[in-house]
Amino acid sequence: MSQQTVNGVPSRGKVLTLDNMNPNVKRVEYAVRGPIVQRAVQIEKELKEGVKKPFSEVIKANIGDAHAMGQKPITFLRQVLALCSYPELLEDNKFPEDAKKRAKRILQACGGHSIGAYSASQGIECVRQDVARYIEKRDGGISSNPDNIYLSTGASDAIVTMLKLLVCGEGRDRTGVMISIPQYPLYSAALADLGAVQVSYYLDEDKCWSLDVAELRRSLNAARQHCNPRVLCIINPGNPTGTSVVASVCEMKQFCHFLSPCVYQDNVYAEGCKFHSFKKVLFEMGPEYSSTVEMASFHSTSKCYMGECGFRGGYMEIINMDPEVKAQLTKLVSVRLCPPVPGQALLDLVVNPPQPDEPSYTTFMKERTVVLADLAEKARLTEQIFNKVPGITCNPVQGAMYTFPRITLSQKAIDKAKEEGQVPDMFYCMKLLEEEGICLVPGSGFGQREGTFHFRMTILPPTEKLKVVLHKISEFHLRFTQEFS
Ligand SMILES: Cc1ncc(COP(=O)(O)O)c(C=O)c1O
Predict the structure, then answer these.
(1) Are 425 and 444 in contact (CB under 8 A)?
(2) Mutation to probe ligand 1, out of 299, 302, 347 (largest number of atoms < 8 A from CB)
(3) If you measure from the C-alpha of residue 328 to the centroid of ligand 1, how many angstroms do you get, rounded to a whole number?
(4) What CATH number was assigned to the domain covering residues 23-70+364-483?
(5) Domain boundaries, given as residue ranges, for the chain
(6) Residues 125-165: pLDDT tens digits?
(7) Residue 307 CB less than 6 A away from ligand 1
């Protein structure tokens, strides 16, 4: 047999091929940056090259990235980070004294007094102390131990670390992790990567995407037939559904572990709705729960009013974890040395913002309030505009920074999508992208009930731009419906 050559040199077959690579990695899917986003990037390049399109820019409403959508950084956060990054600025009198004080405190806590040095693997001690104090204040005085706080590279890293710790067993003993449908695809992707069993429970779209305990029980009982469901994950407030989960958590004791990502804890807009931490709920349920339910909750610098997702700051708090397992967790996080130190510094400012007697307080509060008030207004506008369109049904955006409206697609549209080799909502979103330059994520990337179709859109674009986006989607929907009627 003749040997293949490349430029005259005999070529050796690849050692790593699709057939022999880790099969779990091939099962990983992450719609938020999937094929639709790749096409959006390609269209942006085509626009730059002068290709004529019916629009002049691509609006990427596919991801919760506030700064990419034009949100300005909060002054105090960036002042302290600038001072930490370039301590010579501590001599500059343009910086307020409280920002300097904070920067000095953080620098002193850093190895070598520089944010360029590694920190302890669990995170800088004084930052963990500040996180614990923040949690105590948030939860009305329920104590939090800095030893139970682990700083992380955004929330994603901590969530994956916790899942790693939890997954074990083979066959029917394999760990099952209950996640909501729709869900944020980090969870399904991490479960696929780790070879864990995804156990889906459905949120009730007709009741504003609420969590139904009977559905949790159904899903748990069904899962027991084929795996070992040990973990319940509840995203609160929800992504992609934009709803604020107010759940009865009496069922929680059935689970060995409870994961509570609450990266949107400041993003609650609906009147009468308030963020409830599950830790607080546990303590309100009494010591039978608060001293036994093993729980990990997660927060991040990526969302809320700061939107500083590029800094990759975050933390997790664990409660009731077996001390020997905790030692394993500490060992596991030490393998990646430490989370980014600038992200830790930023997190410190988020959990310990300027106080009323400090010079930066007024500006800080003004900037924070404007961002959150704008988001609340955009949440309201989104629901209002979409619900005027026949064929789009949009639940109130009570929290987080997304809407997940239901779209009615005709059989003709569904058949056409099939002909094109696409799932129907991908077909819809691709067509929207090609015709209007708006990039959304198809609902199928988050999971949805069979026969229903949705898309996820962030409400982050500036208000005037958001209005244009909402109207363009509305007009597109009417055109699409007519084309496939
Ligand atoms: C529910 C949920 N968990 C985790 C994350 C990850 O956030 P981070 O940027 O902190 O890794 C996100 C980001 O969108 C999210 O929506």
Answers:
(1) yes
(2) 302
(3) 24
(4) 3.90.1150.10
(5) 23-70+364-483, 118-351
(6) 999 999 999 999 999 999 999 999 999 999 999 999 999 99
(7) no
